[in-house]
Design brief:
With about 150 residues, the chain is of the alpha/beta class. The chain folds into two domains: about 10-65, Signal recognition particle alu RNA binding heterodimer, srp9/1 (2-Layer Sandwich), CATH 3.30.720.120; about 75-153, 2,3-Dihydroxybiphenyl 1,2-Dioxygenase, domain 1, CATH 3.10.180. It contains three helices and eight strands. Helix 1 (about 25-35) runs antiparallel to helix 2 (about 85-95). The longest helix is centred in the N-terminal third of the chain and has 12 residues, at about 25-35. The protein is globular and about 55 Å long.
Length: about 150
């Protein structure tokens, strides 16, 4: 007897589940910003969207409208893309608000910026610019300690 896989073939072990007001508009934001592909959606009998799934690159994102005790729950996600500047601009054009300007982060070997979508989620959009070890990252953070004051976070 063949055993069933423990997860759907299009899902990673961990897949984000966004609970947002106006899922349809959020899906449009994801389609227009990250070229998301809608896998499917299910409506509740009252017409609200119960569950939807989109794929961005190789990642599944699930979405649903708030209901009862589960109000909107914003999330923060990091999305690696080949051209972060272009994706960052698309996010702004689609209603995103800049929360962190796009810039190189030498301590991390990553270039990224942060966008808050109209539904409360923050999308860190970036790409790797250097492959560095955890130890080297820590050394660089320590060397620039004055930049990491907790008073400014």
């Amino acid at each position: 007897m063949k055993t069933k896989p423990f997860k759907p073939t299009n899902a990673n072990t961990i897949s984000p589940y966004l609970i947002v007001e106006n899922v349809e508009a959020c899906i449009s934001f994801l389609e227009n910003t990250f070229d998301a592909k809608l896998e499917g959606k299910l409506d509740r009998p009252n017409g609200t969207l119960m569950h939807a799934e989109v794929v961005v690159g190789d990642s599944l994102i699930m979405l649903g409208e708030p209901m009862g005790e589960f109000g909107p729950i914003p999330a923060a996600m990091f999305v690696y893309v080949p051209n972060p500047e272009n994706t960052f601009e698309k996010a702004k054009e689609n209603g995103g608000e800049v929360v962190f300007d796009m810039m190189d982060q030498p301590h991390a070997g990553v270039k990224y910026g942060g966008i808050k979508d109209p539904y409360g989620n923050i999308w860190w959009i970036g790409k790797q610019i250097e492959d560095i070890s955890w130890e080297e990252q820590q050394r660089r953070i320590n060397a620039t300690a004055q930049l990491w004051s907790t008073d400014e976070i």
